[in-house]
Amino acid sequence: MLKIEENVMIKNLVTMRIGGPAKFVITVTDKEDIPEAYKFAKERNLPVWVLGGGANTFSKDEGFEGVIILDRIMGISQVETPAGEEEKEGVAYFKAYGGEQWDDLVTYVSERGYSGIEAMAGIPGTAGAAPVQNIGAYGQEVTQVIVSVEAYDTKLEEFVVVPASEMKMSYRKSIFNSGENVGRYFIYSTTIRVEKGQLNPP
Predict the structure, then answer these.
(1) CA dihedral of residues 75, 76, 81, 86 (deg, nearest 10)
(2) 3-71 to CATH, choices 3.40.800.20, 3.30.43.10, 3.30.559.10, 1.10.10.10
(3) Where in the chain is the domain with CATH 3.30.465.10?
(4) Digits of tens for pLDDT over the chain (202 positions)?
(5) pTM for the full model?
(6) How far is the C-alpha of 92 from the C-alpha of 128, rounded, in Å?
């Protein structure tokens, strides 16, 4: 069952502590909640704003006359080699659900001796937001490790897998935050590829 709240102060949801009331805030905690949240907004003809950890996010004092969907879907795990990927010794794949903090994914992967994202430790935000702006630091970027995301496509109204080859990633950009697909996808989970090796933290 969806957790729906009315007139929630946005300043309490973002790290900048700025922002007036949101008409509705819906907290999603599992996959089935996502289409239900969008259905709620569509039935009321309200715009949707997806929010993870609230980092690097600003809002006006007058608030948001729409629905904020808070991503609180949690979980990190090592997974089998995805379809289309070549199985190689020393290479591993990890999946993080969108509500997980990016830094927790970095810690989880690094503690198991895998390299590829450790230089991005400390970057605020969630695993679901990381591919949106292709985060990076100290020579490492999400585009170097990402395999795919599973996302809810609001245009097709179904879950889809978006491979890295279709994300059009560049410096702090992807199809998720630029062009005609802005707002189209709710990123449910992110799968990355990393390798055993010497860790190079920042």
Answers:
(1) 130
(2) 3.30.43.10
(3) 76-196
(4) 789 999 999 999 988 888 899 999 999 999 999 999 999 999 999 999 999 887 777 788 888 999 999 999 999 999 999 988 988 999 999 999 999 999 999 999 999 999 999 999 999 999 999 999 999 999 999 999 999 999 999 999 999 999 999 999 999 999 999 888 999 999 999 999 999 987 777 6
(5) 0.92
(6) 19
